[in-house]
Request: fold
Amino acid sequence: MEVSKQLKKQIIIEVIALIFFIGVICYALFAINKGNANKVASFEGFVIVLDDAKYRELKVQSDGLGLQGEGVTYTVTNNNKDKKAYKVVITPSVKDEDILKQIRVSVDDLYLEDLVDLEKIDDGYVLTSYELDSGYTKVHLIKYWYKLDSDEDVIDKNIKFTYKLVREE
Reply:
């Protein structure tokens, strides 16, 4: 009888421990998958992390609503030995000027621009220029949307963007 009670108690403790370990393993797998959604790259002494997991599609909206959106984070870390300057360039998947004229862009919630008004490099547009000290990190928050008065027949809601870092000398 005494052994039976101790055995039951031991089994209950082991079942609770097993459930706890299964929970920890599930959480770890979830955390690893979430971390893999970020895109990490290295370029000439810079480490770049792009997190566009919250971006879905371009919407027609006012500037106020566009600024309230989640956006894309573009994190740059300078692993060079000295201060370096860089530009963040965004390249749209379409080249149609009529579509691109309808897109508004915000970087770091500091300024609003029409995409086509930004400095152009190759097929992309310079979102921001920044000078970063050695060992420091800068997180850029990028948001974009279609102007409120955009023509529905002209816009392409499935437009995609690629980002690249251009080092300035």
